[in-house]
Amino acid sequence: MATRYLQFFNAATDVWKHTLDVTQDSLKETGEDTNGMNVLDLASGPGEPGVTIAKNYSDSKVTITDGAEAMLNLADDRIADANLKGRVRTQQMELHDFTPVKGLQFDLATAQFALMFTPDFGACLNEITSVLRPNGVMVGTVWEQFDVLVLLRQTMMEVLGKDPPPPPINPLSLKDIDYVDPELEKAGFRPLSRHNETERCDFNLGDVTESDEPYMACLIPVTPTLQAMKDEGKHDDPMGAALHALKNAAESNGHIRDGHFHVEGTYRYFAVQHTQ
Predict the structure, then answer these.
(1) Phi then psi dihedrals of residue 242, to 5 deg
(2) What is the pLDDT of residues 6-27, one digit of tens each?
(3) Could you give the CA distance from residue 67 to residue 51 in angstroms, rounded to a whole number?
(4) 275: closest CA among 132, 179, 178?
């Protein structure tokens, strides 16, 4: 599944570039010295935006974290390919427990499409501030809208024959500014000028005329559920049924363009400085 996730990841180059731009502006705005900057990249998957930041701040040190070892293995490959091994390292770590990096101090924390997946946002922010130095900066993104969620709901409705249960953790859980901003303030953050800026993205997951892999990448969030249905004897071929349903949903909703599977979304930046 980590390898399939690369279909999304490799289609997100423009997102990483935009995040770098927001990060650079935020660091300039605070006037903080970026020489020898120590960066913590949270739930980084295969290593972004950490690798991009390391490339653009040539004397920075970056710790790339994720809860999944398979993701960190992919990040290690990308770090090696970029000749960054001396300055960039990976660390397995969950968003609710920063024990592996406790005692360290970071100048910048990044969290691209990450903080929506922590079960306790306030507690996660407290973990971040425990390792982010006073006046340090945090930049990241959260989803406001994402086509994948609509497609998966339609897919699972067809497979289950009824409304699917809500996901254990909602990818849109932080779309509400009126919830997020007070939590950030409570944790000791102040907004910077590009805070709450929004962007649209288009993920081209690939050619579906030759392979089902673009569809399989889209099915990653429900793959454990489909496998459990098969293991428990609730469906003879839940993955096959889901693949068929997703193809129909993608076609009927206009996501197949020139033989390629496209999904779009709107994401929002948080760009803040730690003041406590």
Answers:
(1) -65, -40
(2) 888 888 899 999 999 999 999 9
(3) 17
(4) 132
